[in-house]
Amino acid sequence: MIRYTGKRFLISLLSVWMLITVAFFLTRQMPGSPFQTGNVSGEVLEQMEQEYGLDQPVSAQYVTYMRNLLHGDLGISYMNPGESVTEVIARALPATLSLGILAVIVSLVAGTLLGMLQAFSQKRWVRTTILFGTIFGAGIPNFVIALLLALVFGVQWKLLPVVGLDSWTSYLLPVLSLAAYPTAVVTRLMCHTCRQELQKEYVVLAKVKGLPMRRIAWTHVWKNAWIPVLNYAGPAAAFLLTGSFVVESIFTIPGLGREFVNSIANRDYTLIMGLTIFMGVVVIGVNLAVDLLCAWMDPRIRKSYLKDV
Amino acid sequence: MYKIGKNAGKKWIAAVMAAFVTVAAAAGCGKTDKAGAEERKERNSITVAASSDTGSMDPAGSIALTYLTYSVSALDELLTFDADGEIDYRAAESYEVNEDSTVWTFHLREEAAWSDGTPVTSADFLNTMTRALDPKSGSGYANYLFPIRNAEAIYNGEMESGELGVETPDDYTLIFYLEKPCVYFLDLLRLPVYTPSCSTYAKETGSGWDTDPKTSVSNGPFYLAEYVPEQYMTLKKNESYWNADAVSLDEITYRFFDSQEAMLYAYESGEADAATGLPSTVMSLYEGKEDLEITETIATRYIYPNLNVEPLQDVRVRKAISLALNRENLCQAVGGDTEPTVNFIAAYMKDKTTGNYFIQEAEPPFQENVKEAQKLLAEAGYPNGEGFPVLTYNYPTLEMDSDTAQVLQEQLKKNLNIEIKLNAQELQVNYSERRAGNFDLCRMNWTADFADPYTYLSMLLSNSTYNCSGIQDAQYDALVAASDTETDPAKRAELMHQAERLAVGEQFYVIPLYSMKSCNLIRPKLEGITQIAATGALEYRYAKWAD
Fold first, then answer.
1. CB contact under 8 A, B8 and A162
2. Which residues 193-222 of A are in CB contact (within 8 Å) with B?
3. Sign of CA dihedral A30, A32, A33, A35
4. Predicted model pTM
5. Each residue of B116-125: pLDDT tens digit?
6. Are A252 and B262 in contact (CB < 8 Å)?
7. Across the strands, what pairs with B81?
8. Is residue A251 within 8 Å of A150, Cβ to Cβ?
């Protein structure tokens, strides 16, 4: 296990380094400059690029960046020199995280319940309604749902706020938009596995014993059918942390996604790098943790892995 | 299918209903429409929807939209001009200038105070200039200090900052010594680099003093009370302000948005009392309603033809393209916030000495004429467009520019039988390709920095950094240089008209398309919002709720 852990850890470290390197050279490849905004004159632009070392060869800039990074210094945001990249991440993370966690919870709970309802209900209209719901939920991109919700609940009915995260009501629309897709996926998954479980012998036995269907569903089928859903929860959580870019822009939520989009548009190199590294480390870290957990639970995995590598 | 109990279906319906009730309950709490505006009215406060939060609030720092939003309500420049071209004295109460416009002396208001109660002194003005002339500051406006003696040398590191041609003989006198006469110097004073920053706190650019309400003091009607990056900033009335009696509001909150649609939603849902720079579709949406306020923006959209590209170095070809366009149709297709123009200088820029629009004081530089355009193209060797190479038109991927590009393509095909290839680029890419001169035809937009035609004319000078199409015209340079030092307003205006006519109507260095308007929504009960003459932006310092 120690050998396995060591190897996986090294490979993760290598992935992070690769990510940083590729991201660094790609951002410098983009045309444009962080200081190039509307009316800035050419001489001022050149002087500033010199000041920040952007006139140096990219390889030299890379060495400097990596040296600072190893000292834990992600640099300052070019667009707002008063703020360090670490501060930007610390400021934006809570908004993204709270929305993401809420959306995961909503999608797991609603998806599980709807999926079971679809599997067990005898009413055709209930099944059809949920089926269409999942088709829409999985098929319509979340920014379209976000715009629709903002239009209907915010602009037409004026029921819910569409700007920022000031009170708990502000969370409703963004969380709904973010949860739509994972809810649809969980619903389908749950319905599918429930139906599979129903064919199994233990269900038949329970029925023969005379247990009511309600009890079979809630005490036996539920637990077994939920395992694939749990497997999906990992990638879903990572998706919600990184995938809320557009929804954050629509509802003007000061989260990581909005920072990311703006930093790219502004060519704020240090901020692009900082956010890429942060999100990369989160995703790679989650995968590492899941792998280690699986290997710990199932020795076959780590054995086959060590053989392959 | 199996059945979970008899009433399972009904229970589910009940659960879904319960969820809706929750939303409806949320509705009650979140009810924001008129209640929001009413509530703000009672507190004597307003919320303004502002474009995205970018840049610092330090006048000597790297500034963008946030500073522009903040400064109109929080900072007093030395003086500015009102809509009629009259001087509006703010931090200064008078000024003198020597005969050849090279020494400008300003007398500051002795009663002016920062929001922490300390007096505003001449050293505070010098503080901003000294810091802005250090390239580390990241000030994009530093070049506007270059008319001051030694400023450019200091910026380039060739001189010490102490050698700047600015004197502060006492706390309330500020003297500028210029390199050469500058008749539009007063217009420059509204720029950030000429705005004061309190020497007590603003010691270092980028230290964060500007966004911390404890140290971010202001000398204008409002001061920064709270700043939440990317979300909002709240400004409160500055009771130490010399003109505090004229200020009615107690509080202004600026909320930051990334998209025009989000701003529109915020206005419609009652979360903002004013939203500016909205998409032109708002015009039809709000037609006939009091909320709609169309304002003139001091900006021109035009095309740069690259003079180093065959066949654009031939003036006949440039002229043919310019004459063949139908700007009226173009604007109809692009939107109601555009107005056709054949001038380079923004159509809504005023001549301060006469009070009229500057461009209307002279004949238009040229007139559209498809027949003549076809003739010119034939003379240049391309009868009916035959043999004319396919030119590429670079433009940023904004909706307005994409629409424009398509209309241009169609009109040139129809009127001259020439093809242009459309090349949509991300804004940053468009900027840098233009700067590098990598284009045949390139879309350009210029919003005035200050209220003088020089802000436009200077761009086409042979040595200008904005001259990216290879213009080298000694005659033009001489005309602009002459206008620069001419102290008689009428003679100066004539020189500038001549320069524009030469550039746009004879040499066709630029192909003007349209001037811009801004589409705004403002609660009808909100009064006293004025427009800044130099840029056309809205100013809320004297706004108030009507009874």
1. no
2. 198, 212-214, 217-218
3. negative
4. 0.82
5. 999 999 999 9
6. yes
7. B87
8. yes
Q: What pLDDT is stored for residue A38 in this prediction?
A: 58
The amino acid at residue A5 is T
φ/ψ of residue B364, rounded to 5: -60, 145
Measured CA to CA in angstroms, residue A193 lies from A120, A196, A223, B8, B401 at distances of 12, 5, 11, 20, 51
Q: Choose between B451 and A233: higher pLDDT.
A: B451
Q: Is the pLDDT of residue A227 over 90?
A: no
> Which residue(s) pair with B177 in the sheet?
B103
**ipTM given for this complex:** 0.73
Amino acid code (one letter) for B457: L
DSSP string, B283-338: HHHTTT-TTEEEEEEEEEEEEEE-TTSTTTTSHHHHHHHHHH--HHHHHHHH-TTE
Q: Which residues of B touch A31 (CB under 8 A)?
A: 428-429, 432-433
Q: Would you tell me the crossing angle of helices A269-297 and A299-308 to the nearest 10 degrees?
A: 120
Query: How many H helices and E strands in chain B?
Result: 16, 21
CB B381 within 8 A of CB B375: no
Which residue has tokens 């809630």?
A218
What confidence score (pLDDT) does residue B32 get?
A: 43
pLDDT for position B504: 96
Q: Side chain identity at A215, as an amino acid letter? A: R
- The closest CB to that of B433, out of A31, A214, A217, belongs to A31
In a 13 Å sphere around the CA of A105, the CA atoms on its Cβ side amount to 7
Rg (CA), chain B: 27
CB contact (8 A) between residue B138 and residue A214: no
- CB contact under 8 Å between A251 and B262, yes or no, is yes
- Statement: residue B25 has pLDDT above 60: no
Interatomic CA distance for residues A299 and A284, integer angstroms: 22
In this structure, which long-range contacts are made by residues B536-540, counting pairs with CB atoms below 8 Å and at least 24 apart in sequence?
A: B536/B295, B536/B296, B536/B297, B536/B298, B536/B299, B536/B348, B537/B68, B537/B72, B537/B276, B538/B72, B538/B274, B538/B276, B538/B295, B539/B72, B539/B73, B540/B46, B540/B48, B540/B72, B540/B73, B540/B249, B540/B252, B540/B274
pLDDT greater than 90 at residue B292: yes
Strands B391-396 and B420-425: parallel
CA–chain centroid gap for B488, Å, is 28
pLDDT at residue A308 tops 70: no
